[in-house]
């Protein structure tokens, strides 16, 4: 893989899977725009790591649930680097609530951050890619739960199911422009969002025993897949989701 000279935006890029994606794309030579909402100090530390790899990097504070702020994010990338080649729609949250007890506020938060941001992030990145020419890559960080029910986390599953169809439909619409749209569906990943499970030995043991590979994924393992999809080796892949789940979807009826 070689992404030298490419420009990548990563939403939710200063922690968890997003941070690992930033670093892996930078290792492959890309210049990076890190989107964040909180912890500017973590963003600057990450940007320093990217620059130490020989790449250019900026952090942009933008609440991607708001279209105007997404517009500012893309505009900042173009102002700094002149183009956008890779858009990684990674920002995501969950409430761990069921269909019976999810509030309107919780529902809207999950749908706006997970699905609305991916929809308009795709739209705005694609518009810029078409304007500059040369095609591009849009990579949506989804979940096994775009296809696999998770009782007690209904709004999250619904948002990821929407990302599944966004990836497929946008992939078809944008194919004539050589803009490839691919989803990445991680299973359980060792990130702060799963801290509750990781800090409970019994829960962690139960989870690991359900995964054929016997462990959670490392964020870097998801990031390496994203970097592959951004590179030339994935030039004939679009409108689909690639799952990285340790085999759990094939071995368990639900989680």
What's the quick description here?
The chain has 255 residues and is an alpha/beta fold. 47% of the residues lie in helices and 15% in strands. Strand 4 (86-89), helix 4 (104-132) and strand 5 form a beta-alpha-beta unit.
Would you spell out the secondary-structure blueprint of this structure?
Layout lengths: L6 E4 L5 H12 L3 E6 L3 H13 L4 E5 L5 H15 L4 E4 L14 H29 L3 E6 L12 H21 L4 E8 L8 H4 L2 H10 L8 H12 L9 E5 L3 H4 L4
Parallel strand pairs: 1-2, 1-4, 2-3, 4-5, 5-6, 6-7
Helix pairs in contact: 1-8, 3-4, 4-5
Summarize the structure in words.
- The chain is an alpha/beta fold and 255 residues long.
- The chain has a single domain (7-243), classed as Rossmann fold (3-Layer(aba) Sandwich), CATH 3.40.50.
- It has 9 helices and 7 strands.
- It has helices spanning 16-27, 40-52, 67-81, 104-132, 154-174, 195-198, 201-210, 219-230, 248-251; strands at residues 7-10, 31-36, 57-61, 86-89, 136-141, 179-186, 240-244.
- A 7-stranded parallel beta sheet has the order 3-2-1-4-5-6-7, with helices on both faces.
- β4 (86-89), α4 (104-132) and β5 (136-141) form a beta-alpha-beta unit.
- The protein is globular.
- It starts with 6 loop residues before the first strand and ends with a helix.
- The mean pLDDT is 97.
Unreliable spans: none
Number of strands: 7
Average residue-wise pLDDT:
97
**Main sheet: strand order:** 3-2-1-4-5-6-7
Number of DSSP helices? 9
CATH class term: Alpha Beta
CATH 2nd-level architecture = 3-Layer(aba) Sandwich
CATH topology: Rossmann fold
**Main sheet attributes: strand count, strand direction, barrel closure:** 7 strands, parallel
Quick one: overall form? globular
Q: Which percent range fits the helix content?
A: 40-55%
Class inferred from helices and paired strands: alpha/beta
Q: What is the succession of H and E elements?
A: EHEHEHEHEHEHHHEH
Distance between the termini: 34 Å
Rg over CA atoms, rounded to whole Å, is 17 Å
Number of domains: 1
**Strand residue percentage:** 5-15%
Tell me the name of the CATH homologous superfamily. NAD(P)-binding Rossmann-like Domain
